[in-house]
TrEMBL record:
PROSITE patterns: RHODANESE_3. This is Rhodanese domain-containing protein. Residues 14-104 form the Rhodanese domain. InterPro entries: Rhodanese-like_dom, Rhodanese-like_dom_sf. It comes from the Bacteria.
Amino acid sequence: MYALHTLLESGVGVIDVRDQADRSRDGILPGAVAIDAAAVIARVVPGLPTSLSTAGREAQWLLVSTNGATAAAIAMRLRDRGVCASHVEGGFRALTTLGAGVTAPAYRRAVAQFAAHSG
């Protein structure tokens, strides 16, 4: 079982790409950075003038959208640019189904992807 704080402590950046209306309605994802889906590429690809200070070559990102589709598409575009990025299958909905939160299987699978590529 994984906790979001453990993932964050390991250095993986969690990005909530849901829009503000969804975050206001459904709640925030604690510990995640909220970045509009249209701006994620510009904020996390290393070397761009708009990149976050944490967007280095070794950075790892886990993206969360409402149902997972938007995050999957953005993660694929990031990987095409050499960025280590994954998404939570099923998105925020999968994380919150039946109060599963960050112990949901979709979240654990996404975290396991990082574990498989590290060390």
